[in-house]
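Minutes, project check-in

Agenda point 3 was the complex the collaborators sent over. CS summarized: two entities, 720 residues total, and the question is how they sit relative to each other. Sequences were read into the notes so everyone works from the same version.
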Amino acid sequence: MITAQHLTKRYGGNIVLNIENLEIPKGQSFGLVGNNGAGKTTFFSLLLDLIQPTSGHIINNDIQVDVSEAWKPFTSSFIDETFLIGYLTPEEYFYFIGELRGQNKADVNALLANFEDFFHGEILGQKKYLRDLSKGNQKKSGIVASFIGNPEVVILDEPFANLDPTTQIRLKGIIKDLAAQQEVTVLVSSHDLLHVTDVCERIVVLNKGEVVKDIQTSTETLKELETFFGG
Amino acid sequence: MFKHFAALQWKSFFRSASLGKSLAVKILMGFFGLYMLGTMLSLGVALFFAIREMVPDVDPLVLVSRFLIYWVLVELVLRYFMQKLPVMDVKPMLTIPIAKNKIAHYILGRSGVSIYNLFDLVFFVPFAIVLGFQGYSFLNVVCWFFAMMGLVLTINYLNFLINKSDRALLILLGLVVGLYGLDYFDIYPVRELAGDLFYGLYEHPIFVAIPILLAVGMYYLNYSFLRKTLFLDASLERKTKEAETAHLSWTNRFGDIAPFLQLDLKLIWRNKRTKAQVFISLAMILYGLVFYTMEDFGMNSAMLVLVGILMTGIFLMNFGQFIPAWDSAYYSMMMSQNIPLRKYLEAKAGLIAVSVVGMFLLSLPYVYFGWEALLINLGAALYNLGINIPVILFFGSMNKKRIDLTKSAIGNMQGTGAAQFLVGIPLFGAPMIIYSVLLFLVSFEVAIGTLALLGIAGFVFRKPILDTITAVYRRKKYGMIAGFKEKNS
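CS then shared the predicted structure for the full assembly.
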């Protein structure tokens, strides 16, 4: 589904990302871990064509992302709060995203109904604009918005950060359900090793822009990761 | 302690990300400030003599006293719009051992040396000196001067108390208009009465205590108010307004640009700065009155074309010049969402086109000044529609500065760069030149007709033009995304 080849990103003299070859097959749930500055967000930004690669390219479902815009209809993402439109209510935001992805209000409502638990009664019908919600609730809105319109690729940057424990556990369930569908490729980055080993079939460790580990998740994975980051 | 605060202030200014980039704007503002200071200074020196020249039979100080009441009110109104509340990033200070009293005193004390107070100071100092040399009693003049300074500080601190309420502004405006009306129609001699009061400040030096006590009182009120609000939950936490849901389903008739139109309408209505732009635009329709009532301009002067372009295109300029920076807060989302860039630009163009038509309809009453006025405004509106919309969208592609939507509009230079100054040249310079040349060489009808035809031609070819602009936006996409991410710029 997604292929990165000879991909580098350089700021001045600093190489912040250098991936020789990375292939993510369709339907895989893919976890990206690494310390601050390892290049996780850079990789996602390149994947979304928000920044230009210094060399190399990313191909998303046969489409080279920095050449054509045709990857947009089947790719959705939530990177950070700047993906939210502050002066809309959550409902308006969901409907707006829905409209961009060819979903009418009924479709969006049907989807939102699945997330009632996740929202915990703090998102819908609150008569608040997104800019006035707490950080955690903003995040919940953004994550759910990225599920609208049956995307084939879902990209979530640090989805567990800033969420309360209950919501983290619920989010894990949601991502697992999503990954269980064969058609959906889920890309998640996280600092929480436990969560990421829980939800992802495959984990790639980035360190200073380079892929240093590429693991199929098993019972030993968490231990392996802890040793890597601990030692 | 004051030294520490001042040092922090200094660093926050010089280390701000925007310093280098918006230096040009700051220098421009600086020059403007200097110019204003110079003006106030010369006014202070010259006013006394000017009055004696023009109204020889009245004591100049008496005359000045009569207008002081209006000065106070008008200054309050001006400051309401212009003067920023003294804010400091106090959050990090609350948990370290600094007495809250000191923070409050510092914030208020600093506002005492605001540039607006300085304007008054450079007026009153020379004016008082002139009074001294013109044989007014020394002691009385000194006391009068301090009384005036007391009034200035009273205005300064009163402004902070009333600045948050729109009602106070309405009351102030009502007072200005009402009092002036009473005077103007000879219903009640406000000027005389207030004049006596203010002249009393000169006649009886002891009264200097009144304005000074007023200033101290205002300071104390501000202080106790500020002291009480220096808690996280009181003032620092933003108040949340209840959201109103809007459906705007009528926009659906515009087809696939409807979601963007709805978004833009919400953008305009739910944010301070954009909302203010709408009111400014509507008020601009009166701009023509200034020129149409002046005798100096013939009925087909190029100035009237400028007026026409401005009146029908004010929203185009105010709103259009910051496309796409209005969406800067969530621009990376817009760029990774399933949005064809072209649709996005089409929606903006559509919204501006509606505003041009609307402003033209509002300008219809100018036909009172003759059919030429109608023709000029129609020609200008068509020109705006066909030529200026693509031009402003094109210049928008140079925007790289973030706009914080929640800040107020007045005196807000955020997002302003060289492009905003350059854009004026083609927007109204080009049509004025075309019009003037043709008017000189041929006739009024041909000149205004050409403007209209140019506009229509631009409208007919809007599709290929918009394609070109879309390509420019696509090319500059990465720069925009990176620029909009930088806060404080």
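Noted in discussion: Chain B has two domains: 2-6+27-236, 251-485.
Follow-up: revisit at the next meeting once the mutant set is ready.
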